[in-house]
Amino acid sequence: MDKIFVSIFENMINKLFKKSFFLVALQILTLLVFALLILGAFGITNDDKNFVKILRNTNISTLIVWSYWWPLIIVSAILFGRFWCSICPMELITSFFGKIGLRKKPNNLLKSGWIITLFYILILIVGIHTLAIHRIPHVMAIYLLILFFAAIAIGYIWEKRTFCTYVCPIGHLLGLYSLLSFKKLRVKEVKICKNCSSKDCISKNNHYKFVGRSCTSELYPANISDNRDCILCGQCHKSCTRNNIAIQKRKFAADLFTEIKLSWAEISFFIILSGFVVYEILSEWKVTKSFLMAFPDWINQFSGVEGNYKGTVKAFVLFFVFPTFFYTILVLLKKVFAKETFKNSLTQLVIAILPITASMHLLKTIFKTTSRIPYWKFAISDPIGVDSAQQIKQNPDLLNDGFLSILSPYIGTIAILLSAGGIILSLLIVRKQKFNNNYSRIISIIGILIYAGIFLISLTARKFL
């Protein structure tokens, strides 16, 4: 019965992807929502840090973007791949301006993937932890406008879909998490592709069609080996005259059991991401947060850093210094005991630790979406959120969190199960990975246990203490 249901679901998805205007209609809808979110946040600001911590949840725009829209993107990437890209309004915008633009070829810097990594770091360290784009509605609105105009400018200057392929700040995040997903886009039969004379899915003549474009992400469907780069835009479904392209089911995390080659930009991105996820989970509990923040707080106090720049220092230490030190130690051990190269060692570690990071990121989405439930009644009655935030600040008892008290034990159990599941999957991956010797394998296992142990100990203590 389950197989029949899955088969029906896949057939429905593939039929919808072949519909000429289905995904375009969804993109237009998300573009409209995108514009409304900007309007709902523009001009709403405050300098009181304690006040904006409440305002981010009472303003409907910031509540939706950071507590529901963004978590949904994470969940969908882990479970289903890059489906968000299918309906992302930035793809529609950049493709349209690519059609009427200058069509310059992207240079080697763009193709390297480093722009994505640097853009993400800029948003994470400067945007979130310095300027508080996740708390101050007006600043978030400016950030969304920057993304919008970046998609326009890059689409107009460079050919094809350069923004989505080489610039989008969450490109590596979605790509790496999609390695876990239950779904994949592949050709049904490679033989059919080899015998196809027109090659409509990659033909230059089709690059700028509005519907049925050939792939503008530099991919040939017959050669796709993993989920990282295909953004599931649905255009190849429509351009293929042989009906040979389909979204298919597969075993969870299947890509991680193959020989994946990562770029330095992807490796660096993941190092930052893994540090960020540690902070996100440990900051959920005051005890672990105070322990984690001890060193960055000492640096801020010792150096005399004040104001917003304290967040910059904190982010740099937690997302760059700590994880870089952790991976460097493991890589040096692999170099000494197994003669592994730096890049090969880091690739082994990234692929092995990825399930733990993804499972904890998934857990963070559960924490965030459930904890914001009490704010919805305020956001709906007062979408701007300023008056509601003032009321809650004066009287915190206005937030009825009885429902959260009921959910809390279940979420605690889910947290431990997710962390345990991540560890098991990571260990299974290490079992299949190729190493120069057993010492290298043991070092990877040690890295997994240390990294996962941080979460497991923290979550277990939080539940039972």
Question: How would you explain this protein's 3D organization?
Answer:
It is a single chain. It is built from 21 helices and two strands. 69% of the residues lie in helices and 2% in strands. α2 (22-41) packs across α9 (137-157), α16 (309-338) packs across α17 (342-371) and α20 runs antiparallel to α21. It is mainly α. The two termini are 43 Å apart. The radius of gyration is 23 Å and the shape is globular. The model has no long low-confidence stretch (mean pLDDT 94).
Total number of helical segments? 21
**Rounded average pLDDT:** 94
Structural class: mainly alpha
Helical proportion? 55-70%
Q: What sort of overall outline do the alpha carbons produce when their principal axes are compared?
A: globular
What's the β-strand tally?
A: 2
Rg computed from alpha carbons, rounded to a whole number of angstroms: 23 Å
Strand order of the largest sheet: 1-2
Low-confidence stretches: none
Based on the model shown, name its key terms.
single chain, two-stranded antiparallel ribbon, globular, about 475 residues, mainly alpha, about 70% helix
Set out the fold topology.
Layout (H helix, E strand, L loop, with lengths): L1 H17 L3 H20 L7 H10 L1 H21 L2 H5 L1 H12 L7 H5 L1 H15 L8 H21 L4 H6 L3 H7 L5 E5 L2 H5 L40 H5 L5 E5 L14 H19 L3 H18 L5 H30 L3 H30 L4 H6 L4 H9 L7 H31 L5 H27 L1
Antiparallel strand pairs: 1-2
Helix pairs in contact: 2-4, 2-6, 2-9, 3-4, 3-19, 4-17, 6-9, 8-14, 14-16, 14-17, 15-16, 16-17, 16-21, 17-20, 17-21, 20-21
